[in-house]
């Protein structure tokens, strides 16, 4: 298989992991390149549900090598818990999970600082996952971080902890009124964690380049979504990494020429968890004078709540309800461009079954300006954007048993075709349920095409 990137092209939770899981069967290595345990990647295999935060989804496929690249911020305590859970469930990572010596380590001060800062923002809070992501990436960029290579060297670990707490504790106590952290107990816990992770730590830049040179194929597992990208997303309501395919080279050490193809993952509608602009969000309709009580009954619960319930739209990491809205073709065109996506996987199409009408947002208007393929730069403008919708007939049939495009109701086919037309790339995979086989693979399988 050509080296392939699977990247979320909305606000995260596009069902990337179930697509990675399918493609992983044909790859030699599965690699995470950015983000951290803010990710919650769900794969359902028969009756087992796995939720990955740091371990690449490919670990479910025996014999595949999995790599946590240098671009991640790794919570080592969470990683050990994740591995313990997987081992208990019979997933063996022995000798096939490698952690970059250069990845940044999420330490207790990152989580403490983030919790204090989010609380202090009050109604302006970003609604982060509280996994220490922002403060850890801040330290990386400020060149004051702690890397895997330090975690596994007790002398470095002690020195960095002591130096860091000299700054962090006054901030926690004096700025935020929070409790200080204790250097000795952090050292004792993290030195022990470092010793456990040491056998998995290596130079993944070399490992990956050697693998590619010897003809092995790599599958890149994106985390979060492109509209959460630190540079291209709805700043400041974003995460702290480059979530687009552009993050692969700095996050792995593999040169851009080794990224052969990009598969964008788009949910058939939109969701967002946490705060920030969401032009097509289906918010509760304000009470309107109705002709009859039946009129109201038809509209309750409103469509956003229906999608949330039917789609199980609750965060895989935090359990928070996800906000739901119609498919946003403006945002999808933008992220297709940013990633240079060659094709898309359209997921959760089954969740739209039963809607009398389905809507697609094809443009925004804000202050007399029309946006069709790019977003305004500020959240202020995005919040004021008026989505312009086109409506299509919905379909009533449940579609989870469909395995070919032709088995989909005509209205569902038309909906997929219209999205393809609007974003300019084809939907080579269409998922119609969370199970491995609830997938329509078109054109003989994108994963095997050169
Ligand atoms: P990721 O972070 O992009 O990997 O996505 P998540 O795992 O956070 O969320 C996707 C959710 O949708 C998970 O609960 C999946 O089991 C579920 N899912 C995946 N594909 C489908 C689908 O085609 N239909 C339905 N109904 N659920 C799906
Ligand atoms: P996966 O990989 C959905 C969101 C948070 C918050 C913002 C910043 O499962 O798609 P952070 O903790 O990263 O500083 O939070 O980003 N967020 C996600 N939303 N899916 C994710 O990951 C997310 N990771 C972070 O809700 O709005
Ligand atoms: Mg998720």
Backbone CA Rg: 22 Å
General form: globular
CATH homologous superfamily name of the largest domain?
Answer: Adenylosuccinate Synthetase, subunit A, domain 3
Q: What's the pLDDT, averaged over the residues?
A: 94
Strand order of the largest sheet: 9-7-5-2-10-1-11-15-19-20
Main beta-sheet strand count, sense and barrel state: 10 strands, mixed
- Class by SSE composition: alpha/beta
Low-pLDDT ranges: 285-300
CATH architecture of the largest domain: Alpha-Beta Complex
Number of helices: 14
- CATH level 3 topology of the largest domain: Adenylosuccinate Synthetase, Chain A, domain 3
Task: Give the bound compounds.
Answer: guanosine-5'-diphosphate, 6-O-phosphoryl inosine monophosphate, magnesium ion
List descriptors.
binds magnesium ion, alpha/beta, single chain, binds guanosine-5'-diphosphate, 4-stranded mixed β-sheet, 3 domains, Adenylosuccinate Synthetase, subunit A, domain 2, Adenylosuccinate Synthetase, Chain A, domain 1, 450 residues, binds 6-O-phosphoryl inosine monophosphate, Adenylosuccinate Synthetase, Chain A, domain 3
């Amino acid at each position: 298989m050509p080296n392939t990137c699977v990247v979320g092209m909305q606000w995260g939770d596009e069902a990337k992991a179930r697509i990675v899981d399918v493609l992983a069967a044909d790859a030699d290595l599965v690699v995470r390149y950015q983000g951290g345990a803010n990710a919650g990647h769900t794969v359902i295999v028969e009756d087992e549900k796995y939720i990955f935060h740091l371990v690449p989804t490919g670990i479910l496929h025996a014999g595949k090598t999995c790599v946590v690249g240098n671009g991640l911020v790794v919570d080592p305590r969470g990683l050990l818990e994740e591995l313990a859970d997987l081992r208990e469930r019979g997933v063996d990572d022995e000798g096939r999970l490698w952690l970059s010596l250069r990845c940044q380590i999420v330490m207790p001060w990152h989580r403490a600082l983030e919790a204090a800062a989010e609380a202090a923002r009050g109604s302006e809070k970003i609604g982060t996952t509280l996994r220490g992501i922002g403060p850890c990436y801040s330290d990386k960029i400020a060149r004051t971080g702690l890397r895997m290579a330090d975690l596994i060297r007790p002398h470095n670990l002690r020195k960095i902890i002591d130096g860091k707490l000299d700054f962090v504790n006054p901030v926690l106590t004096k700025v935020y009124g929070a409790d200080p952290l204790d250097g000795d107990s952090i050292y004792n816990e993290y030195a022990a964690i470092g010793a456990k992770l040491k056998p998995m730590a290596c130079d993944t830049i070399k490992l990956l380049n050697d693998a590619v040179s010897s003809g092995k194929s790599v599958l890149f597992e994106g985390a979060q979504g492109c509209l959460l990208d630190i540079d291209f997303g709805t700043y400041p309501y974003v995460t702290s990494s480059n979530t687009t395919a552009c993050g692969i080279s700095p996050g792995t050490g593999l040169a851009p020429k080794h990224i052969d193809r990009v598969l964008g993952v788009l949910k058939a509608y939109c969701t967002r968890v946490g705060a920030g602009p969401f032009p097509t969000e289906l918010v509760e309709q304000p009470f309107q004078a109705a002709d009859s009580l039946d009129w109201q009954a038809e509209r309750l619960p409103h469509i956003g709540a229906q999608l949330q319930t039917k789609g199980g739209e609750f965060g895989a990491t935090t359990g928070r309800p996800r906000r739901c809205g119609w498919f946003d073709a403006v945002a999808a065109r933008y992220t297709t461009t940013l990633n240079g996506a060659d094709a898309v996987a359209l997921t959760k199409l089954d969740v739209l079954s039963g809607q009398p009408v389905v809507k697609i947002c094809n443009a925004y208007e804000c202050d007399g300006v029309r946006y069709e393929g790019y977003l305004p730069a500020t959240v202020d403008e995005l919040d004021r954007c008026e989505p312009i919708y086109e409506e299509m007939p919905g379909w009533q049939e449940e579609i989870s048993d469909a395995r070919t495009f032709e088995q989909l109701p005509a209205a569902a086919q038309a909906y997929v075709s219209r999205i393809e037309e609007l974003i300019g790339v084809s939907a080579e995979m269409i998922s119609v349920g969370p199970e491995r086989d609830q997938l329509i693979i078109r054109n003989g399988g994108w994963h095997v095409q050169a």
